[in-house]
Amino acid sequence: PMSVKIAPSILASDFANLQSEIEMLNASEADYIHVDIMDGVFVPNISFGIPVTEAVNRHAKKPLDVHLMIVNPDQYLEAFHKAGAEIISVHYEACDHLHRTLQAIRNLGCKTGVALNPHTSVSLLEDVIQDIDLVCLMSVNPGFGGQKFIENTYSKVRQLKALIERKGTSTMIEIDGGVNENNAPLLIAAGADVLVAGNFVFSSNDPIETIKRLKSLKN
Ligand code: DX5
Ligand code: ZN
């Protein structure tokens, strides 16, 4: 099987030295750059927005995986597309008309992503999974980096994997929150395709080596 994909989250990077952080990721084995957008409404925190995403994209040699933790995402899809997003993930809990939102993302030429909060059942994707390129399973409550991994995530990965296989889609499974080298092998074994890692990468002594280690893990 292919090795797991790694998406370091720049939420944990040094914002005053973003260019060098992006250059570090360019030089690493990272597959994506995970960009966490928080609006202070959907989640109790504010991160950064469209101009910063655009600035990151100017230096990035890896595709941007943009995670929108915002209400009314439809209003901003085109702006994030123009800012360089390759994948745009919206939250299931923030979309009254998820199918329409996914069509809008697809029509922009981006890959479609749907993020699920820890309390949101994978079974709710039964009738929309065929329109999703990536499901982002939140393994913490969104809003902050550096939180503790929620163990129930393993069973959600297995359920999602079963749904994807039953429907015959090529949807990727991404895990976001509290990922480290202890839970990563179990997540890969359960069916994870992409691991987001914020603090585990950026707080390590050698982020490039840490990314390499995560990527080489087998289940
Ligand atoms: C949480 C964000 C995550 C977070 C991951 O709201 O969506 O992407 O930055 O950071 P760590 O790996 O530190 O939990
Ligand atoms: Zn995220």
Automatic annotation (TrEMBL):
Binding positions (substrate): 9, 67, 143-146, 176-178
**Cofactor(s) recorded in Swiss-Prot or TrEMBL:** Mn(2+); a divalent metal cation; Zn(2+); Co(2+)
Q: What is its EC number?
A: 5.1.3.1
GO CC field: cytoplasm
Binding residue positions for a divalent metal cation: 34, 36, 67, 176
State whether keyword Isomerase applies. Answer: yes
- Write down how the cofactor binds this protein: Binds 1 divalent metal cation per subunit.
EC category: isomerase
What CDD domains does the database record attribute to this sequence?
RPE
Q: Which domain of life is it from?
A: Bacteria
Q: What does the UniProt keyword field contain? A: Carbohydrate metabolism, Cobalt, Isomerase, Manganese, Metal-binding, Zinc
For this protein, the record's NCBIfam families field holds: PRK05581.1-4, rpe
By sequence similarity, the record places it as follows: Belongs to the ribulose-phosphate 3-epimerase family.
Q: What is this protein called?
A: Ribulose-phosphate 3-epimerase
Which gene name does the record give? rpe
